[in-house]
Amino acid sequence: MADENPDDNNFEFIKFLPEGDQKTKSSRDYTGKGQAKYANNEIYEGEYVDGKRNGKGKYNYANGDLYFGDFINNVKHGIGKLTYKEKGEYFGQWENGKRHGEGIFTYPNKDQYSGWWAFGKKEGNGTYIYNDTGMRLVGQWKENKFVSGKWVLPNGTFYDGEFDNNKPNKVGTWYFKNGNKIQGTYNQKIIPNDDPDDKKLNIEMKWASNGYLYQNADLINAHEKF
After folding, report:
1. Measured between alpha carbons, how far is 130 from 32 in angstroms, rounded to an integer?
2. How far is CA 187 from CA 60, 172, 190, 211, 221, in A?
3. What are residue 116's DSSP bridge partners?
4. What stretch of H or E contains 14?
5. 119, 112 contact by CB (below 8 A)
6. Where is the region Disordered (predicted)?
7. CA distances from 97 to 37, 44, 80, 163, 171 (A)
8. Strand pairing partners for 141?
9. How far apart, in whole angstroms, are the C-alpha atoms of residue 185 and residue 206?
10. Most buried of 2, 112, 135, 193 (most Cβ within 10 A)?
């Protein structure tokens, strides 16, 4: 992508001037609004300062992605929205071309993550909402993985504890609408996958507790779709 190569001068450039558009082969030293069309057919239209993309702009990528928002020194930096072709949409903060800070990512299936990012990955406090079930993961994320917090079911029952592979693991507590709670341990077992083309991680979860778990807690082991 051309916005990842600020030194790329192989493009057609149009200066948007009060007296009319002016075509050139470079944006060198230009301050104002303009349009650059790169050799790979990517197009930027927006503000320039001293020949670089600075300020508000729109960037059309060759793969169909579209970004609209802030730029500093030729890279996405500030507030902006990137619509990924067939992969969803992110709106929020950017730093040095990556999702960084607070932002919302909406996936093609309408699942949504809202929270904090670091260098392009979910990091810190955030909430993931599953569109098809209404379940939520609320808590701490590290390098795109949910590591601790609450797994909230649509009926208000929730689990609070540690997570691995975005699933409950180790010691945690279930809290029920009627005020009851029960502490126990989840143990994960990785199930071998014989299909080399299937990259999905198959995990079996088992819950163990010394306490009595009332009948509606069957959904603890039933809801294994994450």
Report:
1. 44
2. 46, 11, 10, 17, 12
3. 102
4. strand 11-17
5. no
6. 1-33
7. 19, 15, 11, 30, 38
8. 124, 146
9. 8
10. 2
Three-class DSSP category at 214:
coil
Q: Which amino acid is at 89?
A: E
pTM of the predicted model, to two decimals?
0.83
| Each residue's pLDDT tens digit, 109-146 | 999 999 999 999 999 999 999 999 999 999 999 999 99
Whether 118 contacts 142, CB under 8 Å: no
Report residue 211 as tokens: 């306490």
Whole-angstrom Cα distance, residue 179 to residue 170?
23
Kindly calculate the radius of gyration of the chain based on its CA atoms and give it in whole angstroms.
Answer: 24
One-letter amino acid identity for 121? Answer: K
Neighbours of 29 (CB within 10 A): 10
Tokens of 4: 């990842």
Residue type, 101: G
In 3D space, the residue among 226, 191, 223, 185 whose CA is nearest the CA of residue 206 turns out to be 185
